[in-house]
Amino acid sequence: STSGKQQKLEASIKVVPESIDDDLHGTFRSMIAVGKSWVENSEKQKSEILDLYFPTAESSSKIEERIRNVAKEALQYLQKSTKSATDWESVEKAMLVWACNSFQGGRIYLKISRVNHSCDPNSVIQAEGEDQKMLAATDIAVGDEITISYLGSMLYTETEVRREKLRKTKFFQCECVRCVGEDIAARIPCPSDHPRQSQQSLNEDAQYDDDQSVQYICASSESSALEKFEKLKKSMAVVTSRVVGFLEEQESAKDKNGEDNDSNDEEILEEHLGLARTVMGDKHWTTNLLLLLLLDRRLSQMSSTMLTTQQIPEMEDVAEAIDSLQRLYRYVESLKLKLHPGHILGDVIIGTARTLVSLGDMKSQKYGAEWLEKITDYVDKFESQGRQKVVSTLSVAWKKHDRDSSDDGKNSKKQKS
After folding, report:
1. For residues 199-221, b (16+ Cβ closer than 10 Å) or e, as one string?
2. Is 327:288 a contact under the CB 8 Å cutoff?
3. β partners of residue 5
4. Which residues contact 322 (CB under 8 A, 6 or more apart)?
5. Phi first, then psi: what are they for 125, rounded to 5°?
6. What's the number of CA atoms in the CB half-sphere (13 Å) around residue 386?
7. Residue 136's beta-bridge partner residues?
8. Are 25 and 69 in contact (CB under 8 A)?
9. Cβ atoms of 148 and 125 closer than 8 Å
10. Is the overall model pTM greater than 0.85, yes or no?
11. For 181-215, how does the pLDDT look when each residue is reduced to its tens digit (9 = 90+)?
């Protein structure tokens, strides 16, 4: 791992200049904090930090001009409020380096911050105390570029949503192979084969696609596939906007509190999921990311209940969790990313397996082991020893029944003899 210098990003600024867009107010405040703390760095540290990428007047794109304007405003604020002599040119560069290269929490890493983004990455970043380390998340051939994702769970969304996120937060237009290819995450039931009902809703068979017979088309916001379906396009835009907003709120809350707001908004989550499934169907990213969030919460609730009451979950709840996991696994596999499905589904697969093991019967425990088998190779190669031990322990729980049955059989024979 590469050590990083955590910047204190809380600046008490009462008024943000009107020229700065609302979504960049936090960035402006953080730039002020970076500028104020810049003098605390040694000359060597300053040189190393300024060796990272930052947009200049000559090299910047139209998207990068937006962040350069924020840096100019931040610089003017600092110049008015600071009396001491300062190398203002290096301060402005430092603010731009921070805006374009920092990780979650505002940290900059001299090596890892150089790694390029891809919407089909082959590596991931993991926190290790106050440092971070980069891990291969799949086999990487000699000579292949090492890439990571800057998107978190939004990696599993459609192209335009990913690009907009990157434009807003990292100030570039992604042109990776996935972004210029078929937009699988934006699949919806074909409106010609599956006519919409009132409010552009699908019938229940098309929503759930239990027999996998629904015909799909890739219908991103830039697609021409919906030219004849203007009402549907408008409904899809509303759903996408709501889901993106909801997921961003969850991400923001997690950054601040270290956990999801699951106690306050599960009803809203279920409402959004119902809307997404009704309009977008079973294989669209909106349905699946919301379903993943809901499944994770339901498994946590079942686990908590088992610990506090020593009661096993209702079979109906377990069956619903398994159905959700099956749908999610199909969706993630369909994206054909370099990242193994275990990267995003590892927690819910382990959670489902733990629930199945808790039921106590061999059949359930064997089924849990079958799910764990899907991620065992991934966990053994790319996850921590603690994670490996959990998967290993749960995977062999059913074998205790074999030993117990064998012992019972031997004891029975002894008694007869």
Report:
1. ebebeeebbebeeeebebeebbb
2. yes
3. 108
4. 352
5. -105, 130
6. 0
7. 123
8. no
9. yes
10. yes
11. 999 999 999 999 999 988 899 999 999 999 999 99
